[in-house]
Amino acid sequence: MSFFSKFTAQRIARFARLFLLKPSEQRYLAEASKSGLFDPIYYRGAYPHIHPLYHRLPLRHYIVYGERMGFRPNPDFSPSAYLRYNPDVAAIGVPAFEHWVRGGHKETRVHKELPEVVEVPQTKMPVLRGHDTGGTAPYAIVIHIYYPDLWEEFRETLEQVKIDHDLYITITYRGDETDDLASKIKKQFPNALVASMPNRGRDILPFVHLVNSGMLDSYKAVAKFHTKKSPHRADGDKWRRHLIEGILPKQGLQEKLDAFVADDSAGFWVADGQHFTGEEWWGSNFETTRSLMRRIEVPVDHGKLSFPAGSIYWVKPLLLGMIKSLKLNENTFEPEQVQVDGTLAHSIERALGFLCAATGQKVVQASQIDPKAQVKRPEPPEYVSAFYLPQFHPIPENNAWWGKGFTEWRSTVSAESLFPGHLQPMLPSDLGYYDLRATEVMGEQAELARDAGIDAFCVYHYWFDGKRVLEAPLNKLLEQPEIDFPFYLCWANESWRRNWDGLSGTVLLEQTYAKGFEKQLVEDSLPYMRDPRYQRPDGTRPRFVIYRPEDMPDPAASVAAMRDAWREAGIGEVELGAVCFHISGENQVADDLFDFWIEMAPHGMVSGSDYLFGGPDGNKLGFEPAEGFEGLIYDYNAVANNSTTPAYYKKLPKNTICGAMPSWDNTARRGRMAHIAYGANPGSFNRWLPQLLEKRVPQSYRKELFLNAWNEWAEKAVLEPSQTFGTLYLDVLKRHIGK
């Protein structure tokens, strides 16, 4: 027999052995299969070098060959460590994983290598500021070094990376050794940022510290890896290289990275075998993970654990922003005591999966990224508007009703947090606590909005039978034609009441409809309509919106009178719209009375089953709000789902502009009587928008989108930058609708 024939026969015999199991191996196979503790996806990804035929029967391969070769059945179990820490098992000669499956896991035996205890000097967290040192490349690579001896391996990896990137390296401080290594790295990579870190939070805190600094804000994607050692694995070095090469392949990195960035559904990119799913991966981290996610109102389902394992991945900007919004710092991480589980660092690893799902994104493995795949994105709207509140300046009426100098900033800053993780108060960042009498602020707002894809502000026009309030910002704008602020008016024709809802409570400023009010209202609108910045979305007709048309005594007659008055004034035809309000008024309004209607989220979108508190099913939150809370809390994501359900939107007038909201929470105005959309954050907004673009905008009036709102701070319906989320809402808009 030739050598080739003999070699082939041996390979066939080895493969056939998988089907010729001994009785003990057959029992082992049955028990391991039933337990669910063997992870075939992990096994294939962890050991790509074994023959593809064995990949078809991974558990059989493990039982016959893999365990003796030091392979792991899942990422969390080390056969060699199990036998070393459990000598009674080694003494009876039972395979380590078989014993674990049969009962060892119920006895909570040590099943993986315990970390090495190393004493290192103390040091302070470095001060990092993104605006001082932000990079210029499209991508960033972030490395944390705990084991200095691995630097040379990482240097070789970096020298093979052929994409344009900025480099950030953090090092666990060990004294002079770290100082010497930092100097060496700076000589090898002069443009890298190198910073020493205290031995706290493993590789997670150094990464979070970089994220919090703002240094990583501008990148299309960020790669993160660290000096991962696996002493419990015979092939630990090979395994680490597999994880890193899974995200930094030697061939085709740029093409894969382009595909990853282009795919809006992808949030994390990990090596094959590193997307862990299943409740068995919780360990003792569930409660900490749930508490962590409540910081930004992200629910955690024990049965839906899915996360990027190993802390080696590419990550998208939205997820970095969501990590930043958790407001973690050095003091929130436990001191390093060589914990094997249950720390904040362990919980963050799992929390990343829930963050990813909350944004409507997913974890993808290297082999799932296809550079040749065609990514089809929904068409952006033809025109995007956002409601705009011109309230932020003092007026005599508010001074009398609420105290001298009152603006809604006073209510906004005093809002209470009413339950664990309740995101109140929500406070401004980039634009500060502005006063709209300083008209340049409106120019800054318009610049932010324009960059995000918003075409115009629909500004509330407060007119009460000839009496104007809150008119100063727009009047001052007319005096400064150089400020590019695209706008049109919405007559907010409801009475002002002390409880802010326009429907009940003590009347502060009553809306009446005196005979001939239509012509007077039109005359008041003329200076604005004649301004070149006043919007004509169809290219011809100036647009005007009425907030509550059914409150007018005779809506049809009033609309006709207003149209005639605009014609007589030389304006010509006006594109006249109205808001679809959630509560019907006294007077019916035909759908075709107006050129269009505006769907104003959340009005009319909340159904009985969507209430988490205060609805027909009682308290479904899983925790109690503050004592005395009598308001309503409903599920933001359920409202988003409702908006794209035919049973809901087919009830709207056909000429409706579809709408969305970033959030809704009027705690600042109504305290413990507030209405709150739970789970509203830039991530859930990112889930909603693509669905609207795909299912609603194509049938929307003129393919438009309406956002509620730009700056309703006391209702937390805000797109402007905030201290909680930075510019994330605007970033989400720009990603989906930016021009």
Layout of strands and helices, then pairs:
Blueprint: H1 3-16, H2 23-35, H3 40-46, H4 52-55, H5 58-66, H6 79-85, H7 87-92, H8 96-104, H9 130-133, E1 139-145, H10 151-159, E2 165-172, H11 176-188, E3 193-197, H12 204-213, E4 221-226, H13 236-247, H14 253-262, E5 266-270, E6 275-277, H15 286-294, E7 306-308, E8 313-315, H16 317-325, H17 344-358, E9 362-365, E10 383-388, H18 396-402, H19 408-413, H20 440-452, E11 456-464, E12 467-469, H21 472-478, E13 487-491, E14 496-497, E15 507-509, H22 517-529, E16 543-546, H23 555-568, E17 575-580, E18 596-599, E19 611-613, E20 632-635, H24 636-643, H25 646-649, E21 656-660, H26 667-670, E22 675-678, H27 682-695, E23 704-707, E24 711-712, E25 717-718, H28 728-737
Parallel strand pairs: 1-2, 1-4, 2-3, 5-9, 10-11, 10-23, 11-13, 13-16, 16-17, 17-18, 18-21, 20-22, 21-23
Antiparallel strand pairs: 4-8, 5-8, 6-7, 11-12, 14-15, 19-20, 24-25
Helix pairs in contact: 2-5, 2-8, 15-17, 20-28, 22-23, 24-27, 27-28
Structure, described:
With 739 residues, this protein is an alpha/beta fold. The chain has 28 helices and 25 strands. The chain has an 8-stranded parallel beta barrel. It is elongated and about 100 Å long.
